[in-house]
Amino acid sequence: MDSWVIAMMLGASLFLGAIALVAFLWAVKNGQFDDEEKFLNATKFDGEEELNDAIKREQKKEKLKKDYRPE
Prior knowledge:
Elements: H1 3-29, H2 36-44, H3 48-67
C-alpha cells in the first residue's frame, strides 16, 4: 500500500473518532445516561403478587429448559 492511503485512512479514523468523542461528551453533559429513577420506580410500584408471579415464571422457564429434549 502507498503511504498516502495509510495517511488518509489514519486521518479519517481520527476524524470519526473525534466526532464520536464529542457526541459522547455532549450526551453525558445533557444527562442522556442518567436514569436513576427507572429501577427505583420499578421496585416501588411492584406488588408482592407481581414479584411472586415473576419468580414462578422464571422457575417454569428453567424447568422447561431442563426438560426440553429435541427430537
